[in-house]
Amino acid sequence: MPTPIDTLSLAGVSIGMKRDDLLDFYLSGNKYRKLFSLLKSDLSSYGRILSYGGIQSNAMLSIARLAQQKNLPFDYHVRYASPQILDAKVGNFFEARRLGLQLHISSAASDEALGAQLRASIEDDTLFIPQGGASPIALEGVAHLAQEILQWQEANDMEKLFVATPSGTGTTAWYLQHVLGERAQVLTIACVGDESYLGAQMARALPSRYAPTILTTQKSYRFGMPHLDLWAQYEAVLAQGVEVDLLYAPVMLQALVENVGVWREGYLLYVHSGGVIGNATQKVRYAKLFGA
């Protein structure tokens, strides 16, 4: 079933929000789309799932859910894990551990080095999922999302459509634009690193004639760092009855507000990326810094 689309207001303009956060409590948003092909596949030939990334990663939690559903051990590697997160009784890591995640802390100098080490250690029965689910396996699920959007666009006679989704690795935005083609323009922003980092990540994906538009903001936001203007974007959407995640969505929303001239002449459809379970630990950081 296609996910519903709610009508919200952003920068004084009516927009749509595609509620992919309602797909599954753990497997929500773009992570469900990225893992879709694995969710429907028989993985009994594998002995374990292996991945890596951040200790509060949304992908980590979604892969843990996949592993639980497929009754497979899940080994997850990180380069750093703060005692506060390890001891927290809420949040992505807490939930992923409840689902069976086995944590390994690496001394690798970078995420790229960690990924290379893990790839070199893969055994025949290991299902390796790159950081953030950035893999060709994501194309099938993102293509389903694109088809839902195109069907909705045709049914509502949306001639000029913009589709917004924030980016970590850029996998969802790139594949989404690849399938949508010239029928809709994807807008995104680099939430992890800068535009050059995001462009390099996208360049690793499949070749495409079409590319998302990467928006920028006047202020530079370090990933995961609380900012009052980002909190304001979160609260503005929450006041309309929808909770978004605190890591990616507020940066995307801020970029859309600052660049309203890019999309105002068409219709904006924002794809909810899920990830709200992780808000519990991020709200603690906001409270400590701002009393939010």
Secondary-structure map:
Blueprint lengths: L4 E6 L2 E6 L11 H10 L8 E5 L5 H12 L4 E5 L4 H5 L4 H7 L2 E5 L5 H10 L5 E4 L8 H18 L5 E4 L6 H10 L4 E5 L5 H9 L9 E3 L12 H11 L10 H10 L1 H4 L3 E5 L7 H12 L2
Parallel strand pairs: 2-10, 3-4, 3-6, 4-5, 7-8, 7-10, 8-9
Antiparallel strand pairs: 1-2
Question: How large is the share of residues in beta strands?
Answer: 15-25%
Based on Cα principal axes, name the global outline: globular
State the end-to-end distance.
Answer: 37 Å
- Annotated CATH architecture of the largest domain: 3-Layer(aba) Sandwich
Mind explaining what this structure looks like?
The protein is an alpha/beta fold and 292 residues long. The protein has two domains: 5-29 and 137-290, Rossmann fold (3-Layer(aba) Sandwich), CATH 3.40.50; 31-133, 3-Layer(aba) Sandwich (Rossmann fold). Helix content is 40%, strand content 16%. It is built from twelve helices and ten strands. A hairpin with a 2-residue loop joins β1 and β2. α2 (58-69) packs parallel to α4 (92-98), α6 crosses α7 (171-180) and α9 (228-238) crosses α10. It is globular. The relative contact order is 0.17. The model has no long low-confidence stretch (mean pLDDT 94).
Brief overview, please?
With 292 residues, this protein is of the alpha/beta class. The protein contains 12 helices and 10 strands.
Task: List its salient traits.
alpha/beta, Rossmann fold, single chain, four-stranded parallel β-sheet, six-stranded mixed β-sheet, 40% helix, 12 helices, 292 residues
